[in-house]
Amino acid sequence: MKSRIVRSSYALLIISSSSFLLACNSQPTHNASSGLCPQERTTEMAPAVNASLSNPLNLNASNLDAGEQLFQSSAEPLACAECHGEKGDGNGPMASMFQPAPRNFTCSENIAALPDGQIFWIIKNGSIGTSMPAFNKLTDDQIWQLTLYIRSLEVKPAKMETKVPGQKQASLY
Fold this sequence. Notes:
By secondary structure, this protein is an all-alpha fold. The chain has a single domain, classed as Orthogonal Bundle (Cytochrome Bc1 Complex, Chain D, domain 2). It is built from 7 helices and 2 strands; from the N terminus they run αααααααββ. The protein has helices at residues 2-24, 48-51, 61-74, 81-84, 108-111, 116-125, 140-152; strands at 161-162, 170-171. Helix 6 (116-125) crosses helix 7 (140-152). The chain starts with a helix and ends with a strand.
């Protein structure tokens, strides 16, 4: 009787673990709202004293490389790319499991208006109403490096040019 209970417990553990691993390795579904540009969000603003902070680190290869390393593989509790995707487009392996979907950092409309202090605050404290966890084990410098890297993922829209009668070229952006 006891061995039957133990075998049943092991079977349940294996099934649960397998289901979790399959979910982690799943690809976003067509219904996932990841990768949208822009994304509708009502993220709580950081306290004004925090939101107004500017990144104290220099934008250089060393800080960008450190931010990329954290984003792609070493941030804890989980590498950012698992949810936000390797390109930062919100299409990570786990993206389809979350509602709202992870933020698309490549979308200029999503990221350009966010102050550095807001990005820092969300990374450090998480985001209420989303699946974004707090990364409070990272040092402040690591969070600022991530902020620099996240900003580097932004794809700015190409300038739209049009011919205006009587003028050479006019830029719409």
